[in-house]
Amino acid sequence: MSLFFSNTLKKLRTERGLSQQALADKMYVTRSTIARWEIGSRLPDAVMISRLSEVLDVDMNMLLSTVARSDECPNIILVDDRKLILSGGLPILEEVMPNATVMGFTQASDALEYAKANRVALAFLDIELRNTSGLDLCCQLLEINPRTNVVYLTAYSDYALDAWSTGASGFMLKPITPEGVREQLRKLRYPFWTGGKDT
């Protein structure tokens, strides 16, 4: 539930004497869209946040900040078929994102099952997975939740061009480092609150 943003939006709307329908009319969306934002079941994208800031006459950065803090305990996954990468990478992700639930998977199928049951905010995916490709896994994760941020992990920079065409947020060369993770967090398409420093 994205209550930090939803409570802020409802407060701003009521302070301006707008009904959900009136705000929807100004935003060129349906009333049910506003309702979903206000109960926390959905979050607006960057375009909608920009429009909200104009309609409600508030600072866009303030709205972005409330959206980023709305995921109280975001789910982060690391998918790599090498257990060594998981054992080294998971503690780094937990260090950088102490407010997150971090899970590791060696099988793409297990990661997909987890994503179906839990809203994944960020997925770190190895590109060369046994029996599948991280590029294919990205597409499947985005079908489940289009707001999942995906960062590819690989030891080879040759994949960069293919990786960008899948809708990913970033690309990291192995090994995983705290600095590398923080750099990727600054570039996410759908930012969220991690509880870490510099994020």
Question: Could you walk me through the main structural features you see in this protein, from its secondary elements to its overall organization?
Answer:
With 199 residues, the chain is α/β, with parallel strands linked by helices. It has 2 domains: 3-68, lambda repressor-like DNA-binding domains (434 Repressor (Amino-terminal Domain), Orthogonal Bundle), CATH 1.10.260.40; 75-185, Response regulator (Rossmann fold, 3-Layer(aba) Sandwich). 49% of the residues lie in helices and 16% in strands. The chain is built from 10 helices and 7 strands. It has helices at residues 3-15, 20-27, 31-39, 46-56, 60-68, 83-96, 108-117, 134-144, 160-164, 178-185, and strands at 75-79, 101-105, 120-126, 128-129, 132-133, 149-154, 170-173. The chain has a 5-stranded parallel β-sheet, sandwiched between helices. Strands 4-5 form a two-stranded antiparallel ribbon. Strand 1, helix 6 and strand 2 (101-105) form a beta-alpha-beta unit. The longest helix has 14 residues, at 83-96. It is elongated. It starts with a helix and ends in a 14-residue tail after the last helix.
